[in-house]
Specification:
The chain has seven helices and 14 strands. The protein is an alpha+beta fold.
């Protein structure tokens, strides 16, 4: 029931211990959020102050790669072109959760006011995590690479089947046991060398678990293909066109989230218990731990800081499990985030590449 009516002290009652309560408030697996939180500073420090306010545009810059020339002979007076830079606009979006609580609703309840408030704050953070996880996963998929040839040469990628309509690399059924080696090989052909972060759907992640279990003591060792690859599972469908296994791969450290909250919240202003309200901050009680998502056991614990705005007004709150002479406080928990990928200058080119099992 709403407003904690179900736990009112009208009969002998007990609270479930945390072990029995946790399934109801279980956390969604959010690998895209975890990857973004591993790299909170994609630009020079100071984007919090640079943005100033929600309506101010912020740009970031990097040098653009200079394409190889075609010269084959020296000249008395050689000529050349100047280098250039890339401008990237940072786009923030607000994630907002709201709730209310009255001063007297815990007076006759098995849960105290403080427990109710703590529960609602924690669940607001839980819901923000869930929403951010979905937003970031969709961002990676939407911004995947659409230039399925080798940069600067235009050569065809070998060993897979590029799909220039759905923008993915297809791995044939005969190569199923080498799916993740194909991922590494293609990323290498695209000149993305080094460690990879891979977000896999449940089918592809199960394949990774099976292949990783085929170690040196087995007749066929498949574990070599996971060296230098961090494979994370998402339980969300990001490509409904493929059901045999789908993964998004990118060089490690090339996906970031730039969080931002307003100046008044960062500095503190006003009073939560007043009608005009107050501004402050709320440190994420959940952090982010992805041990269960990462086959290598990597951990990311980077708590976010949320903006809090709250105001209080006198109210007859009997209908909501309060009392006729009561005070109701409304809370808004929010954060602005700008998901950001390492920019590439090629038209429709991205560091994120999609791989699918085709048969």
């Amino acid at each position: 029931m709403a407003n904690y009516v179900a736990s009112n002290l009208v009969a002998a009652q007990a609270k479930f211990i945390e072990q029995f309560s946790s399934p109801e408030i279980r956390r969604k697996q959010n690998p895209a959020l975890a990857l973004a939180l591993k790299n909170l500073s994609a630009t020079i420090p100071g984007h919090q102050e640079l943005r100033k306010r929600e309506d101010r545009t912020v740009y970031a810059y990097l040098f653009q790669k200079i394409s190889p020339g075609a010269g084959t002979a020296r000249a008395a007076r050689p000529t050349g072109t100047k280098g250039t830079s890339i401008q990237v606009g940072l786009t923030w979006q607000s994630i907002v959760e709201t709730f209310t609580i009255s001063m007297k609703q815990g007076d006759t309840n098995i849960y105290s006011y403080q427990e109710m408030l703590m529960n609602q704050m924690m669940q607001a953070a839980l819901n923000i995590h869930s929403r951010l996880g979905t937003i970031f996963l969709n961002y990676l998929y939407t911004n995947r690479n659409q230039l399925l040839t080798i940069p600067y040469t235009g050569a065809t990628v070998q060993g897979v089947t590029p799909d220039n309509i759905n923008y993915n690399y297809g791995v044939a059924g005969a190569d199923s046991n080498f799916f993740f080696q194909k991922v590494k090989n293609v990323m290498g052909q695209l000149n993305h060398r080094g460690e990879l972060d891979i977000v896999a759907d449940p089918t592809a992640f199960m394949k990774a678990e099976v292949l990783r279990a085929q170690g040196t003591q087995n007749a066929t060792n498949y574990t070599f293909q996971f060296d230098g690859s961090n494979v994370y599972q998402t339980t969300e469908v990001f490509d409904s066109n493929n059901t045999l296994g789908t993964a998004l791969a990118m060089p490690a450290g090339t996906f970031a989230a730039l969080p931002w909250i307003p100046k008044q919240n960062r500095e503190g202003y006003g009073d939560y218990e007043s009608y005009t309200g107050g501004y402050g901050t709320f440190v994420d009680p959940l952090g982010m731990t992805i041990t269960e998502l990462d086959a290598q056991g990597n951990r990311v614990e980077v708590p976010l800081t949320y903006a809090i705005y709250a105001y209080t007004q006198a109210s007859d709150d009997q209908a909501n499990n309060g009392y006729y002479q009561d005070q109701v406080t409304t809370f808004e928990v929010s954060i602005d985030v700008a998901p950001t990928l390492a920019p590439l200058s090629g038209a429709n080119e991205s560091v994120v590449n999609e791989f699918v099992q085709t048969t």
